[in-house]
Design goal:
The complex is a heterodimer. Chain A is mainly α. Chain A has helices spanning 3-25, 31-57, 65-87, 92-116. Classes of the chains: A mainly alpha, B mainly alpha.
């Protein structure tokens, strides 16, 4: 993993997450904006996993390979599945759930950095 | 019970339930992944802790499914799973602090879920309150 990239991924996930929760508190549900936000978060997760795969191919391996793979797969699954679940609810709570799904990527990224060693 | 909408139980998956099911789903996913890794790679290190991890994963899965679906069966499943979860986090949390030697490696519920920001302790309490809040009014 590259620390700088991990910070960027965490920043994206926290900014999108807090922004989305802000919209939920304001009782807004701008679907297009929310979808763009979650796509951005998913792209950040994807870039991070692809970079980790490239590093692994070049011989840099995480300390705990299996655990890292578990977190990496989870980080790719949470934004899209969370988005589908969150945005199928037509209330501010759905918007809030989208925000939480986005914030979770920051936590997963932290764990991935720790497990990488 | 007579079919009038005012007395029917509310869906546990809408409103604040959206958030709750999402968080349960994330715990189900990560607990399953974690237990699978532990059991596949180092089961003999701490078999009791890892079996407990797997058990916790099953409990989170049942709670997620129960809360996400509607109907009396789903509600019973959710109530049972969330109750087991609360007992689990209290018992395992207490034992892990009183007898740390019994838990050489962490589970989700060790130290009342301190490794996960105490979310595992708060979640079943919110779950039971939410199930109570959405049940049919007598």
């Amino acid at each position: 993993m590259i620390d700088g990239l991990a910070y960027v991924v965490q920043a994206v996930s926290v900014l999108v997450g807090l922004g989305t929760i802000g919209l939920a508190l304001a009782d807004r549900r701008p679907l297009t904006l929310l979808a763009y936000g979650l796509v951005l978060v998913e792209v950040a997760a994807l870039v991070q996993v692809v970079v980790a795969i490239v590093q692994a191919v070049r011989g840099e391996r995480p300390d705990e390979v299996a655990t890292f793979i578990g977190y990496a797969l989870t980080s790719l699954l949470v934004p899209p599945v969370g988005a589908l679940w969150a945005l199928s609810d037509k209330s501010k709570w759905g918007t809030g759930a989208a925000g939480i799904a986005s914030l979770v990527l920051a936590v997963l990224t932290l764990r991935m950095t720790q497990v990488w060693g | 019970m007579d079919g009038s909408t005012a007395q029917r139980p509310r869906r546990t998956s809408s409103g604040p339930g959206r958030l709750l099911v999402l968080v349960y789903g994330i715990f189900a996913l990560s607990a399953t992944a974690r237990a699978a890794v532990q059991i596949a790679t180092k089961f003999s290190d701490a078999p009791v802790a890892y079996l407990l991890s797997a058990f916790a994963a099953v409990v989170y899965l049942c709670a997620t499914v129960g809360l996400a679906r509607s109907g009396p069966g789903a509600r019973r499943l959710a109530t049972t799973a969330v109750t087991v979860e609360l007992i689990g986090v209290l018992v395992v949390g207490t034992i892990s602090l009183a007898q740390p030697d019994d838990f050489p490696d962490a589970t989700v519920w060790s130290g009342y879920g301190e490794g996960y920001g105490f979310v595992p302790l708060v979640l079943p309490i919110l779950g039971l309150l939410w199930l109570r809040h959405t049940r049919e009014r007598a």
